[in-house]
Write a structure and sequence with these properties.
This protein has 160 residues and is mostly helical. The protein has one domain. It has five helices and no strands. α3 packs parallel to α5.
C-alpha cells in the first residue's frame, strides 16, 4: 500500500483518534442537596424591607407630607425589588448551571443600575418635591438590606 500507518492517516485527516473517546469525564462538584438555601433569606428580608418601607413612609409623611411619604416608600420598594430580583436570578442560574452565574448576574446588574440611573437622573432634573425623599428611601433601603443580608450570611455561616 502507500506505507502510511492508520494512526498517521487518521491524524492527517483531522479526525480525533478513537482513544480520546474513552477518557473519563472530569469530576464536577455535586449539586447541593437542597438549593433552597440560596433564597431562604428572602422571606426575612422582605419582612424587614416592609417594616422599613412603613417607617420611611411615616417619616416622609411627618416631615414633608404625602408626596414625600410615597417617594420614600418608593425608594425602599425600588431597592427591595432590585435586590430580590438579583438574588433570584443568581440562585436560578447557579441551580441550572454554575457557569451562568457571572453572565446572568452581570446582565441583571447592568439592567437594574441602568434603570436606577434613569430614575435618579429624571428625579434630580425634575422639580418634583419628593426627589429628596426618594433618594433617602433608596439609601435607607440599600443600607438596611445590605446589613441584614450580611448579618444573615454571618449567622448561617457560624451555624455550620
Amino acid at each position: 500500500m502507500s506505507g502510511v500507518s492508520p494512526a498517521a492517516a487518521e491524524q492527517s485527516s483531522g479526525r480525533v483518534p478513537e482513544t480520546d473517546d474513552d477518557l473519563p469525564l472530569p469530576d464536577l462538584p455535586p449539586l447541593p442537596k437542597d438549593p433552597r438555601w440560596k433564597v431562604e433569606h428572602l422571606g426575612f428580608l422582605t419582612v424587614v424591607s416592609f417594616a422599613l418601607l412603613m417607617c420611611a413612609a411615616s417619616v416622609g409623611f411627618l416631615t414633608s407630607g404625602p408626596v414625600a411619604a410615597l417617594a420614600a416608600a418608593g425608594g425602599v420598594l425600588i431597592v427591595t425589588v432590585s435586590y430580590s430580583l438579583t438574588t433570584l436570578v443568581v440562585a436560578v442560574a447557579d441551580t441550572i448551571r454554575p457557569a451562568l452565574v457571572m453572565p446572568l448576574g452581570m446582565l441583571t446588574y447592568v439592567v437594574k443600575f441602568s434603570l436606577l440611573g434613569v430614575i435618579l437622573a429624571y428625579g434630580v432634573s425634575s422639580d418634583w418635591s419628593g426627589k429628596n425623599a426618594l433618594g433617602l428611601g433608596i439609601v435607607a433601603g440599600v443600607v438596611v438590606w445590605t446589613s441584614v443580608q450580611a448579618w444573615w450570611v454571618t449567622r448561617r455561616t457560624l451555624r455550620q
